[in-house]
């Protein structure tokens, strides 16, 4: 979740059957029996109208921090990647996330299964942001650059704020409806939620080890684990609350960092 795994858009419209499936552009309203049904119908609506334009734009924005490709080979790779992403979302809309296989995505995109795995390690990687490693590396670099007189809490706060800023910098279309759908998938599909939490836990362990190494005079293993766990746990919890209530995600996470590090409100 959050800067560890899914980005940080400000989610002004909560994704529920009424707000997601009612479209001002189409004037249509659908009734929905479930959260997943609302996702499917909204995405299907895009498929029926301007889905290709919108989704192509989204795939460039949310799937990797790549510069404009200059070589023919790179352009071909990005076209294949975009086709896989577009195809996957079309199939998710038609069949549901859980019932769609990677083989079906590859076949519908007219590529081999091996080609799919050249671009994505798992189906989950189509939905979860791929900037997690970059964002984590930023946090680790901040910790390694400990300034004279900094406490462990000072450094951790600075690292978390820089990670959040990196996550927001990678999100170029905060008003995109497809990002709303993506966040709903992450919070409603158990496999995606589990992967998100595992990535967050892995990142937490690496941050703990880095902080322990740079502050041996201040922290032992328990101190470092408790400090990092407290701050990252606060960020994750605030992010989940923001998604449930439709509040801006980045703002909620900054509030959580402030609260967890003892900053005045």
From TrEMBL:
Single annotated GO MF: DNA-binding transcription factor activity
Biased composition, class Polar residues, residue ranges: 18-36
Region entry Disordered, spans: 1-36
Keyword vocabulary terms for this entry: DNA-binding, Transcription, Transcription regulation
Highest taxon listed in the record's lineage: Bacteria
Alphabetized InterPro entries for the sequence: DNA-bd_HTH_TetR-type_CS, Homeodomain-like_sf, HTH-type_TetR-like_transc_reg, HTH_TetR
Ranges for domain HTH tetR-type: 78-138
DNA-binding span(s): 101-120
Protein name (Swiss-Prot/TrEMBL): HTH tetR-type domain-containing protein
């Amino acid at each position: 979740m959050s800067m560890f795994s899914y980005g940080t858009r400000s989610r002004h419209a909560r994704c529920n059957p009424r707000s997601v499936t009612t479209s001002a552009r189409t004037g249509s309203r659908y009734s929905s029996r479930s959260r997943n049904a609302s996702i499917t119908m909204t995405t299907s609506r895009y498929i029926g109208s301007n889905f290709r334009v919108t989704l192509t734009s989204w795939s460039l924005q949310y799937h990797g921090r790549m510069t404009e490709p200059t070589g023919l080979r790179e352009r071909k790779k990005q076209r294949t990647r975009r086709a896989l992403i577009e195809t996957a979302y079309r199939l998710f809309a038609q069949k549901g996330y859980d019932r769609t296989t990677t083989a079906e995505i590859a076949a519908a995109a007219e590529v081999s299964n091996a080609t799919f795995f050249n671009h994505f390690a798992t189906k989950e990687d189509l939905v979860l942001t791929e900037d997690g490693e970059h964002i984590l590396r930023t946090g680790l670099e901040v910790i390694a650059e400990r300034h004279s007189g900094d406490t462990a809490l000072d450094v951790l706060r600075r690292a978390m704020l820089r990670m959040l800023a990196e996550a927001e910098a990678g999100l170029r279309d905060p008003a995109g409806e497809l990002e709303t759908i993506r966040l709903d998938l992450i919070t409603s599909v158990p496999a995606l939620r589990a992967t998100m939490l595992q990535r967050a836990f892995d990142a937490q362990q690496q941050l703990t080890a880095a902080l322990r190494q740079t502050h041996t005079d201040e922290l032992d293993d328990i101190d470092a684990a408790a400090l990092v766990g407290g701050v990252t746990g606060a960020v994750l919890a605030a992010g989940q609350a923001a998604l449930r209530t439709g509040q801006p995600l980045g703002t909620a996470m900054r509030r959580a960092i402030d609260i967890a590090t003892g900053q005045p409100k």
